[in-house]
Amino acid sequence: MSMYLFSHWCGHACVPTLVWPCLCSHTGVAMLVFSHWCGHACVTTLVCPCLCSHTGVAMLVFPHWCGHAYIPTLVWPCLCSHTGVAMLVFPHWCGHACVPTLVCPCLCSITGVVMLVFPHWCGHACVPTLVWPCLCSHTGVSMFVFPHWCVHVCVPTLVCPCLCSHTGVSMFVFPHWCVHVCVPTLVCPCLCSHTGVATLMCSGEDQYLLHVLTLVYCLKG
To answer: Are 144 and 215 in the same domain?
Structure first.
């Protein structure tokens, strides 16, 4: 069956992470199995569509490895109480407590277009993160601006479809804040040399190790 291969940087090694569709044994519905490297072991993480028992609506259950315990994380659609529109509630493990994270479509006050507000737990405070579509000034095409909290400042992160200079195909440029410098990260659909199918190539620069992070996305038919 089809699977995804995510080669990613993990500490001192580039570790392949496999993602493939399977069947959820206790429900018989499709799920994803995320085999990933966690510390010194390859930990299987299951993703399974189920029903949210107290609402009766569809949700996703993400059992994941967190330190010394296998903690289930629930994701389900609900209603945003102050807007009445659909949102997602992500209860997740944060340190010593399960902190709810709300995702709510709202209106971007400065542009009037639909955006998402992600209040999330950041250290000792819940910091809102705004996501909204705008225009990429140097290309005139649609992009997303992700102002996010980064240590002591809110840093804008730009996502812009452009052209991959060495392939001529469409790519995304993710300039992002990396500790003290803004590092551009390139994402480019290319060809997976050993399969001939489309992949994504991400290159970036780490401030300390100055290594190249390569994310390879391979779809195996």
So the answer is: yes
Do both 145 and 220 map to the same domain?
A: yes
Is pTM, for the whole model, over 0.90?
no
Residues 25 and 62 in one domain: yes
Q: Are residues 18 and 87 in the same domain?
A: no
Containing domain of residue 170, as a range? 136-221
Question: pLDDT by residue for the chain (221 residues), tens digit each?
Answer: 233 333 333 333 333 333 333 333 333 333 334 444 334 344 444 433 333 233 333 333 333 333 333 333 333 333 333 333 333 333 333 333 333 433 333 333 333 333 333 343 333 333 344 333 333 333 333 333 333 333 333 333 333 333 333 333 333 333 333 333 333 333 333 333 333 333 333 333 222 211 222 222 222 22
How far is CA 30 from each of CA 16, 23, 88, 217, rounded to the nearest angstrom?
Answer: 23, 5, 20, 21
Q: How far is CA 145 from CA 39, 62, 103, in A?
A: 33, 28, 16
- Total domain count for the chain? 3
